Amino acid sequence: MDAFLNTFFNFEIMAQALPLLLKGAFMTLKLCSVVILCGLIGGLGLALAALSPNKLLKWVSVVWIDFFRAFPPLVLLVFVYSGLPFAGIKMSPFMAVVVAFFLNNSAYFAEVFRAGIKSIPRGQSEAARATGLSTAQAMFHVILPQAVRNVLPDLLSNTVEVVKLTSLASVVSLSELLYSANMARSVTYNASPLVLAAGLYLLVLWPLVRVTSRYQRGLAVN
Amino acid sequence: MRFLETFFNTQVIANYLPDLIDAMGVTLGLAVTTIIAGVLGGALLACLRVAGIRWVNFFIIVFANMMRALPPLVLILILYFGMPSLGINLSGWMVIYLVLSAVLIAFAEEIFWGGLTAVPAGQWEAGRATGLSRAQTLFYIAFPQAARMGIPPLVNRTLATTKLTALGSVIGVKEILSVSSSAQSFSGSATPLTMAAIAYLVIFVPAVIASHRIERHYQYAT
After folding, report:
1. What is the rounded distance in angstroms from the CA atom of residue B116 to the CA atom of residue B137?
2. Which residues of chain A have a CB within 8 Å of the CB of B86?
3. What angle do CA B205, B91, B45 make, to 5 degrees?
4. A4, A10, A156, B205: which has the highest count of C-beta atoms within 10 A?
């Protein structure tokens, strides 16, 4: 028991590591806000393209979505970070993470938006068009607000996934929360900083996860 | 032309193809064992939760929320670097297997449980009225319906979890990403990364397409 506590819950080491970890947490926060925003905007664009009447646009975006959903995000990240420099495209770790996760997340968000838009009956857009709104106005003022409300739980759980995903940035040595914790671990030869990082992740994500499962159950009962 | 030589160098492909095929075997093996443990474990926990024993349910809920809220890479690092201090040496393969299974168990449990709560109470009452025991009603009447409802989200989650096998590269499991990463640094060519990308597409594009089929099939069935 002592050995266990000493390895995973050594408070002295945790206290030492805390400033470094908070710095990392700040970087994680910065990364999350950029990546989530890009993913939402890209996903909406892709979803609209996938549902557009233009055959070519539709086909390209559907293939694009499936292609990037099939790639493990870490593989995408490694490819962008260490593969693209061979083609003369060199990026900072932060930029590489943003680009790789944009490709991955926008595909996932696109699937969610697409499901949402498809859940709205045709009559809604016909009625909107009949009152004189343009196609774009009908989409943004009538369809999308309802669609987003319908898929809010999925959007939320996808966002949780994105936050968890940012921990992969540690692999390309971006000094976010997990990277800082692992750094502290290798200096102290003790796993407590990693447990502290886990605690910080839980602090933010546990409430969100609880909300998503309540949503799921609520929907199921209806 | 230079592009082809950088990303599709035939000499490099010939050199590393056998290693990569072995690595695909490791990735697939890890994926299959994880899926088996995850789906069975999740079903078991969901059924156990039906029994309504308070302290058991408390542990199931805490476990499920924690595994869904924590980034898997954090768990992987904690197990891989923490356990040896307790005298327990786990191989990288074992660590990935344990963590991914635990994550999939947690998600599968929530999905099955969501399905079980959605089975109308009348089904239970009818089962009991025909003389089935509670356990029989669960196994023959409630669970099959819950499982059916849970299939689309379960397929998606299974795909997402098996893609995480790429995290094995962080702790030296010889799966596709780690083999191709080290081949890339040995050969000084980006070709092994292209090979890895193709290997993942070979495995996951059929899986993504199948998941669409399954989703459509079960959407209208319920």
Report:
1. 12
2. 3-4, 7
3. 65
4. A10
Amino acid A87: pLDDT: 85
Write b or e for each residue in B77-111: b if 16 or more Cβ atoms lie within 10 A of its Cβ, otherwise e. Answer: bbbbbbbeeeeeebebbebbbbbbbbbbbbbbbbb
- A7 lies in a domain? no
Residue with the two structure tokens 């990693």? A194
Domain count within chain B: 1
pLDDT over 70 for what percent of chain B? 98
Does the CB of B27 have a partner CB in chain A at under 8 Å? no
CATH code of the domain in which A199 resides: 1.10.3720.10
How close B40 comes to chain A (CA, Å)?
20
B202: nearest CA partner in chain A? A70
Do the Cβ atoms of A220 and B118 come within 8 Å?
A: yes
User: What ipTM goes with this model?
Assistant: 0.88
Whether A6 is covered by a domain: the verdict is no
pLDDT tens per residue, range A1-35: 788 888 889 999 999 999 999 999 999 999 999 99
Percentage of chain A modeled with pLDDT above 70 = 97
Q: Provide the domain count of chain A.
A: 1
pLDDT value of position B220 = 55
Domain of B70, in residue numbers: 2-221
Amino acid at B70: L
* C-alpha pair distances (Å), B1 with each of A36, A109, B7: 37, 36, 10
Instruction: Flag whether pLDDT at A63 surpasses 80.
Output: yes
Q: What does the buried/exposed string (b/e) look like for A45-59 if buried means 16 or more CB atoms within 10 Å of the residue's CB? A: ebbbbbbeeeeeeee
Residue A13 lies in a domain: no
**Res A27: pLDDT:** 95
Q: For residues B20 and A120, what is the distance between their CA atoms, to the nearest angstrom?
A: 46
- Asked if residues A184 and A21 have their Cβ atoms less than 8 Å apart, the reply is yes
Q: Calculate mean pLDDT across residues B175-200.
A: 91
SS (H, E, C) B95-107: HHHHHHHHHHHHH
Give, to the nearest 10 degrees, the angle between helix A152-165 and helix B54-69: 70
Chain A residues with CB-CB distance to B196 below 8 A: 75, 79
